[in-house]
Amino acid sequence: MYISHRAPAKMAAKFRRLLPLVALPGSASLGAVYAAEAVKKEETDCGCGKKKKTVGISELPIYDQPTDLEQYTYIEEDVGFLRQHVSKVRQAVWTGLDKMEGTRVYVVDKYRIAEKKTTDGLEYVQSEEGFFPRLGVITLSGLTGLVLGARGGLIKKAVYSTTLAGAAAFLCYPNLYTSVTNYSVSCY
């Protein structure tokens, strides 16, 4: 195992960067202990020959009890005609926007679920081992075309069933359908 001769220098540099982060909280706590000890003494000598009287913690002004409590009363503001009606309109608009946002979230959620299921179903039908599911999709599409064209004549039934069966075949066999279409177009 190789140890670089620069490893101690790198460690010292890292230690120098971390030292202020460690020393700052420690020095703050030492200062607090020193200040608490200074408060206990009644008189201190500042070194200039004069003695000063120290102030206790409870004598500091932030700990004073309020002697004169002011009484506050709530006075309701007079709302004008315009402000009152604008407020009503604003509240109605926000209520409507909140409902629209809830509906939007619901619709987007349902759309994503439907998109995921459709994509999964299409991938299953397009897989190589799915001959019978493909056959079922194409047959069901052709029968749906017959049902949709039931009110019309024979031509309407033929157009609907052929169109839907062709679309289903395109979804199930995209590569084969493209090559057959290209071949049939090139023949003309």
From TrEMBL:
Predominant location: mitochondrion
GO biological process, one term: cristae formation
A GO cellular component entry from the record: MICOS complex
InterPro entries: MIC26/MIC27, MIC26/MIC27_animal
Signal sequence region: 1-35
Family annotation (Pfam families): ApoO
Functional note: Component of the MICOS complex, a large protein complex of the mitochondrial inner membrane that plays crucial roles in the maintenance of crista junctions, inner membrane architecture, and formation of contact sites to the outer membrane.
Protein name stated in the entry: MICOS complex subunit
